[in-house]
Design a protein that fits this description.
8 helices; binds farnesyl diphosphate
Length: 247
């Protein structure tokens, strides 16, 4: 298996991506925004494929935020159409390549046709083990935290746990990502230096990689460049260099 100069045993377990810049990519070419999103779908395929082939275990994609519902109706409809089509077309390949699909976010708000194919793919791929793709749809980091607080409060109220039982691991387990480990690497395309309400609880020690490349131009080479940069980072998790040397 081609590793492109990457160290196999130091790959991130979980990569999360804020896929930004589809609109700018389209504008630069005099195309409609939806054409930018369509081209962005090709980058999704490339990224899933390479993650799977490298042996990365989890890939989270911020495909549609809770705030994205406020975009023009045509754009929202176009994005939902692209999503539905992607899920239809990729089903077979996901099964062939052992890719498991998971969705996070407020699925109830999605159109019924998207929900149908999404639920089918999730159920069909649930026993696949090579790569888990986490699609964030109608998701927001704060929304996730609000839902988590409500769920835990409900358990306390029902007498299923005590206030004193609430700790970081209980909160983590109750977020939408549940047992999935926190991302090791968060990539954002198009150069914006912000999190835009994507994962909040999940990223205390996540390495951030921001590239000016627009999402439709995010190629296999660009992804490898991000992974190489990740492998050059020294992750200290709050410790000193000396402590790290002592193991
Ligand atoms: C941000 O670019 C991108 C989105 C809001 C949608 C991302 C969707 C896709 C990549 C395609 C469909 C997804 C899947 C999983 C098949 P932007 O529109 O904010 O770009 P701009 O900031 O340049 O306007």
């Amino acid at each position: 298996m081609e590793l492109y100069g990457l160290e196999k045993n130091r790959l991130p377990t979980h990569v999360a991506i804020i896929m930004d810049g589809n609109g700018r990519w389209a504008r630069l070419r005099g195309k409609s925004r939806i054409e930018g999103h369509r081209e962005g779908t090709a980058s999704v395929r490339t990224t899933v494929e390479l993650s799977r082939n490298l042996g990365i275990r989890y890939l989270s994609l911020y495909a549609f935020s809770s705030e994205n519902w406020n975009r023009p109706h045509d754009e929202v409809e176009g994005l939902m159409g692209l999503l539905e089509n992607y899920l239809e077309v990729e089903q077979e390949r996901m099964m062939r390549e052992g890719v498991r699909l998971v969705a996070i976010g407020d699925r109830k708000r999605l159109p019924a046709s998207v929900r149908r194919v999404l639920d089918r793919n999730i159920s069909l791929t649930r026993n696949n083990t090579a790569l888990t793709v986490i699609l964030a749809l109608s998701y927001s980091g704060r929304g996730d935290i609000v839902k988590t607080v409500r769920d835990i409060a409900r358990k306390v109220k029902a007498g299923q746990c005590e206030l004193a039982d609430i700790d970081e691991s209980m909160i983590a387990a109750n977020t939408e990502t549940g047992p999935i480990p926190d991302p090791d690497l968060l990539i954002r395309t198009s150069g914006e230096m912000r999190i835009s309400n994507f994962f909040l609880w999940q990223i205390p020690y996540t390495e951030l990689y921001i590239t000016p490349t627009l999402w439709p131009d995010f190629s296999e080479q660009q992804y490898i460049k991000a992974l190489l940069e990740f492998q050059r980072r020294k992750r200290r998790f709050g410790k000193t260099d000396e402590q790290l040397l002592q193991g």
